[in-house]
C-alpha cells in the first residue's frame, strides 16, 4: 500500500511542470477581476481564461473550492459600513463529470451594499484546465473597488 502511494506521488511529480511543483504564480492562469460600486450595488466581474473554469459551488460532495469574497479589508479600512449581501451570481453551467456548477468566460456577481472608491477587497478563485482536467491552487487576489 505504501509503495503504491509513493509510486503514485512520484508519477504525479513527473507530469507536473516546474511551475506546478514550486507553486509560483508565474505561468499559472489567473482570473481577471474588477469591482465597481454604483449606488447601493457592488458588481464584481470575474473573467476566466479560455479553456479553463472556476467553480461556482462546492459540488455534490462539498469538496470543491468556489469563487469567494472577503470584505474584511474594506471594513477594516472604513471604506464599508457592513459586508454586502449577494443579490445575483452567474448562472454558470453544470459540469456533468462532477455535478458542479462552473464559470467559463466572464460572469458578474452583484452585491447589495455600498463601498467607497478604493475599498480593498479580496477574491478567491481556483482555476481548472478544461483540457487536462488539472486544477491549480486557489489564489486570493487583492483589488480596489472603483
Structure description:
There is one protein chain. By secondary structure, this protein is α+β, with helices and mostly antiparallel strands. The chain has one domain (29-144): Immunoglobulin-like (Sandwich), CATH 2.60.40.1250. Helices cover 16% and strands 37% of the residues. The protein contains three helices and eleven strands. It has helices spanning 2-15, 18-22, 72-76; strands spanning 32-38, 41-47, 52-55, 68-70, 85-88, 93-95, 100-103, 106-112, 120-125, 127-129, 139-144. The chain has a four-stranded antiparallel beta sheet, with no helix packed on it. Strand 6 and strand 7 form a beta hairpin. Mean pLDDT is 86; it is low at 3-24.
Question: What is the element layout, followed by pairings?
Answer:
Elements lengths: L1 H14 L2 H5 L9 E7 L2 E7 L4 E4 L12 E3 L1 H5 L8 E4 L4 E3 L4 E4 L2 E7 L7 E6 L1 E3 L9 E6 L2
Antiparallel strand pairs: 1-2, 2-8, 3-7, 3-10, 4-9, 5-8, 6-7, 9-11
Q: Helix fraction? A: 10-25%
Most strands sheet: 4 strands, antiparallel
Strand order of the largest sheet: 1-2-8-5
Which structural class matches the secondary elements? Answer: alpha+beta
* Architecture (CATH level 2) name: Sandwich
Output the CATH class name.
Answer: Mainly Beta
Give the mean pLDDT.
86
Amino acid at each position: 500500500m505504501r509503495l503504491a502511494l509513493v509510486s503514485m506521488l512520484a508519477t504525479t511529480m513527473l507530469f507536473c511542470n516546474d511551475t506546478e511543483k514550486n507553486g509560483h504564480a508565474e505561468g499559472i492562469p489567473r482570473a481577471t477581476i474588477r469591482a465597481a460600486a454604483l449606488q447601493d450595488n457592488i458588481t464584481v466581474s470575474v473573467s476566466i481564461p479560455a479553456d479553463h473554469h472556476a467553480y461556482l459551488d462546492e459540488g455534490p460532495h462539498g469538496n470543491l473550492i468556489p469563487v469567494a469574497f472577503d470584505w474584511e479589508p474594506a471594513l477594516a479600512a472604513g471604506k464599508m459600513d457592513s459586508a454586502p449581501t449577494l443579490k445575483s451570481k452567474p448562472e454558470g453551467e453544470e459540469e456533468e463529470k462532477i455535478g458542479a456548477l462552473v464559470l467559463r468566460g466572464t460572469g458578474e456577481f452583484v452585491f447589495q451594499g455600498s463601498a467607497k472608491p478604493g475599498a480593498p477587497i479580496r477574491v478567491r478563485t481556483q482555476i481548472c484546465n478544461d483540457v487536462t482536467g488539472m486544477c491549480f491552487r486557489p489564489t486570493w487576489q487583492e483589488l480596489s473597488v472603483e
